[in-house]
Amino acid sequence: MDFAARITRLPIPADPARGLSALQATGIADPRLGDLIRGTAGCSPYLAGLIEREADWLPGALAPGDVVARETAGFETLSADALGPALRRAKRRVALWTALADLGGVWPLERVTGALTDLADRATDLALRAHVAAEQARGKLPPTGAEAGGIVALAMGKMGAAELNYSSDIDLIVLYDDGAYDPDDQYEARAALIRATRKAAATISDNTDQGYVFRTDLRLRPDAAVTPVCISISAALAYYEAEGRTWERSAYIKARPCGGDLAAGARFLRELRPFVWRRHLDFAAIQDAHDMRLRIRDHKGLHGRIEVPGHNMKLGQGGIREIEFFTQTRQLIAGGRDPDLRLRGTVEGLARLAEKGWVPPEVAQELTAHYREHREIEHRIQMVNDAQTHSLPTSAEGLDTIARMMGEGDTVAWSARLATRLARVEALTGDFFAPGEQRARPALSPEAEAMVERWRSYPALRSARGREVFARIEPDLLTRLTAAAHAEEALARFDAFLAGLPAGVQLFSLFEANPQLIELIADICGTAPGLAAYLARHPEVLDGVLAGSFFAAWPGAAALRRQLDQVLDAALAAPGGGYEQALDAARRWAHEGQFRIGVHHLRSLIGAEEAGGQYADVADAAVAALFPVVAAEFARRHGPPPGRGAVVLGMGSLGARQLNASSDLDLIVIYDAAGQEASEGPKPLATRAYYARLTQAVITALSAPTSAGRLYEVDMRLRPSGRQGPVATSVQSFRDYQMTEAWTWEHLALTRARVIGTCGTDAAALAEEVEALRVEVLQTRGTDPRVMPDLAGMRARIFAAKAPDGAWEAKIGRGRLQDIELLAQCFALRAGSAARAVQAQLRTGPRIGLVGREDGERLASARRFLWSLQCAGRLLTEKPLDMDNLGKGGQAFLLRETGTASLEELAERLAATVETAGAIIDGVLAGVEAQAG
Question: What pairs with residue 649 in β-bridges?
Fold first, then answer.
């Protein structure tokens, strides 16, 4: 690094005599470098002393290279006693070098803080290793193969983020890997490592006539008032799991291993991730951080008007801590869902938050500029006397010195600009932590007042914290609910929603930080009681609304599968993760997708046809991604799938890609053992038993309720022989059954079959074979003259078994969805067509002469209308449609979806549509019977 090529930003100091003396002592003649050293010495008594003390070292030190590595080379061989003086000398030289590079404008902020952090890391590691080695040499530490005796120092705060300021203390948490020692040696190891930690801290922090290395603070460890300076990793994990607080979570954003057994430290931090990074968006962290800000200000007396003289650049209003809190809190909110946000550095964190849409880019850029400026001022303050202070001088002379060190000649103008920047930071961060004034509470009817009063007894509002956060959002919430098109219904449905919540702090904090969600919940409660009930069961789905892509274009089946694969991989690989965690993760992912589809449908962003396809995309991805995960878990005990593997067929509405908000999944599993009689694993199984039990495991993975709820109900009754048949069928048996034994209704069901999941070594080829077999069966069996008469018999049995479920039934009964779809399947079977979608199957009818073109179009139109009613109705409620219970909002949604103006018109159109479709189907079947006669 060529200092002589740089022009100093410092003017000649007020006291040139001392600076000149220091300069002459170095023997450096270059005038520009001389200006830098003279200016540095004149502004800082501390640095002047270092220049004089290191006068012999300085000329040779001014050369390119890593000053920390150069000045600590060979320290590994020093004894514990010799290490302290050597580190203090290195600290003096690194501090002087860094100050000259900083003041001379040679290094940017990150290089300055990075060099100071490198020295802190090096000193910590050397000191721990030296004193652990001393304990080992004395025979006080039991033998272990662990690196550095299993001890590890975690750098916290600014050291963890490589952001040490010029006179920082260093915050360390020292742990040891208790798993590295035999149970009988635990007490002795613990005592020795505690001694080593105390001595290492003294080596670094003791202030002698040679100075000190770093002031060292070990109080960030768990329960510092009662725990020793070094505790076991298992004890630390137990503490954070049971008692960890938000400020400790925030502290661990920056934590990293810096000395000793770095691998043990990395393992500890991996296991701690679920504590630091919450699975759901954690907006409750905002209030915790705000409360902490206020407590700090109260404790330090830092309220009131911003004045530059004496202002605390770290903790004061608009200071460094405000920007750090702003960044860390946003990271805590979303970092559980997005690992890309888990960065230690403040500048890097702001940039990533902006990139991900959590902070407006212009805000991130402005805060970054203020942060850099604040940190440089902080460095100048501390360089004057090596004092651990963050407050600007109160005297005019002291402020002049800091302004000069910042390269400013006009202290008054510089102070005015600084005051403006501080006020701006306070405004930007204050809006985030304590957003604007609350609305006034709207006037309510006596009945509504009684309902609202009842809320205080609900589980979500039983905690003081829950009531406190809710009180801040209640006026806005009530204002939006009472402004809904059907206010009484909206309020009543929100009451039901609130009553179903097991807890409220996180959700209420989410609403407080994102008022647009209050508008969404009012919309849902005013329109869709079914969706409101779904939301009460799965309130975490609101996280997805804020993820940035909630209202973007639908990603499609392939992208959804990739998303879920990534989610499952992360759940399986996470510390404390595994199979159960993967099942929970799949449920949360699917719930968010289903909620998104429901909201888009409710707000007319998509129609019923698109909604049906999107619900199917989510189900496809869930089955396709989970099947190999279940198979891998099963294989751990019983070996990999024997033979070629297995495929899952989606049947019914899933196969036709026409699901609604409450659809279950019809599935069939087909396998090919390829002659292999049993699996090869720790507990081998006969092939038939293997695939039967694997199928049961898949059903459980999809349908069992877990802590994250249920994924799907699964129906396997469409398999060969129904409930009497095996749950998994070999491809050979499936072929034989379909060709020789299957009933017509089973061939009809096969018209909608679709491979959606595979596992095994050759499952892709098996999937192609199964699809070819499906088409072969349809083409072979579709010519059977019994197909149409069998359909007529099926209709009669269906109508006899179940009448339409109320006046608004769209699915079951003559001329309704199921009736039309069965005829469409019959068309596909008779034509030997591979088409699965109902509309495509209906088009085959006219082509093969089973129905006239106009009647075919009438059937297609009827299906679209009935599907719109069915899909919309299932979003509103899982029960039969009851317009009185549904309310005005739900009625309006149904009318909009079906293109009708009133309930009377909807009823008339439904009756006419059903009668038209029923008559056409009657005619088709009667015509076939007449031809047969």
Answer: 668, 755
